[in-house]
Amino acid sequence: MQYDKSSLLPDVAAEYVIGTLRGGARQRFEKLLETDAVAQAQVAFWEQRLSEFGEALEPLSPPEESREAILSMTRPAVSSGSLHSDKNASSSRFSLFHWLSRGFGAYASGVATATLLFMAIALFWRQSDENTGALVGESELPSEVNAVTYKDGTGPFPFYSAQLKAAASSMRWMISISPDHKEFSVIASDDFLQVGRHTVQLWGMTSDNRAISLGPLPNRRDASITFKIPNALRGRDDVRFVISLEGAAGATQDRPTGSVLDEAKALDSI
Amino acid sequence: MRQRLDSEELRGLILRVAQGDHKALAELYDLTSPTLYSLMLRMLRQPDAAREALQDCYIRVWQRAETYSQAKGEPLSWLIGNARYRALDLLRASKERRSHISEEGVLDGMPSTNSSPLDDAESAESLSRLAFCMRGLSEVQRKSVLLAYYEGYSHSELANAMAAPMGTVKAWLRRGLAKLRACLLEQ
């Protein structure tokens, strides 16, 4: 559906809010919503008016444990590194991350065909983005220090490098490297709501214990971020990736100051 | 009669949540969770799924309360919108759930074309506009809108539930929403 005709916007906005706008059309409309004030106003109109359907239902108190769970997950206790997780419901859902990471597992085992397969997947993904709208990803502010460049909707690169996880959680991030070794791509396996108001920061550590901040990681399922590989890491074969839990603004020091959640050595030289 | 929540109070709580006030989140939850949970349960049918959606919704509110502004309308509408989008995500992720729900089962207990929760609330002046405008829709248009809203049905699911071709159902829904919009703008 084309949105260049403003007369179509009210209809599309209505179907977006009510939920019948699906798939690529929904993703394209969400992209439009990021910048188009008219589309935003139309969505606000329908959200406001249709919410009366929700208000019309007889209120029903949720179980007490829901309140405790929500308050526990949002309590600043997260900063102590105590991560809570209840991913049972989401673990059975299809995840692009898991599909891809299984393929990268084969690659890491030395199956050459997996490389070709994932190059094809990466190409398909990029092509698919052009056709159906980009996958919605995280939009974080770039780090001035590291000249990080974030792109929404970027798929994995052909070369698997490492996988990191959040302790006591099903959350994983997969790191892959571009063929020219100039960029990393990081893709998130799931929604990581437990992080609360904190950010998960990715670092590159060298064997001489130098820490280089690479930037905050996405915390939405299948969201990806691409950033340039700093010169200090390029070509090295001793790089370990480390993730730490930092404040909302990201790392303020040149080393991890929050809890270190995980670390993994890069598979090959960067 | 159910009591409408105080918009100013909710707005103030959301602003406090945006500033990281954890106690405000608890107060906001206490005031609004029965409304959101009722809708989640209605849409998802399963208490576990409703609880998950509710949980995700409030965690997102905690993380993104600063994105709320008065320009986005009533705070409860904003909360309901957040909760409903999360429920729609869950519904899309579990399409197989439809396989065991018969058409008759789906229509049982949902707002019929003759009465709906809106009718019960119609005496509350602030809730009467949508109910009034819904009465201007044809039966099939009204049913399409209600099934899409309360059940999160896609076009194809609507076609199955209403035993009509998908193109016909799309037209019912599109015309119904257009009529609804025109009526709401007149109010």
Task: Report what the structure shows.
The complex is a heterodimer of chains A (270) and B (187). Helix content of chain A is 34%, strand content 19%. Chain A has a four-stranded antiparallel β-sheet with strand order 1-2-3-6, with helices on one face. A four-stranded antiparallel β-sheet of chain A has the order 5-4-7-8, with no helix packed on it. In chain A, helix 6 runs antiparallel to helix 7. Chain A is globular. The N and C termini of chain A lie far apart (42 Å). With 187 residues, chain B is mainly α. Chain B starts with 6 loop residues before the first helix and ends with a helix. At the A-B interface, helix 1, helix 3 and helix 4 of A face helix 2, helix 3, helix 4, helix 6 and helix 7 of B.
Helix-strand sequence of chain A: HHHHHHHEEEEEEEE
Mean pLDDT of chain A: 70
**Content-based structural category of chain A:** alpha+beta
Enumerate the strands of the largest sheet of chain A in spatial order, edge to edge or round the barrel: 1-2-3-6
Low-confidence parts of chain B: 96-115
Proportion of residues in helical segments of chain A: 25-40%
Give average pLDDT of chain B, whole number: 82
Question: What distance lies between the first and last C-alpha atoms of chain B, to the nearest angstrom?
Answer: 23 Å
Q: Which word captures the global form of chain B?
A: globular
Principal-axes shape call of chain A: globular
Structural class of chain B: mainly alpha
Using only C-alpha atoms, the radius of gyration of chain A works out to 21 Å
Give the low-confidence spans of chain A.
77-95, 105-153
| Strand percent estimate of chain A | 15-25%
Question: Helical proportion of chain B?
Answer: over 70%
Order of helices and strands of chain B: HHHHHHHHHH
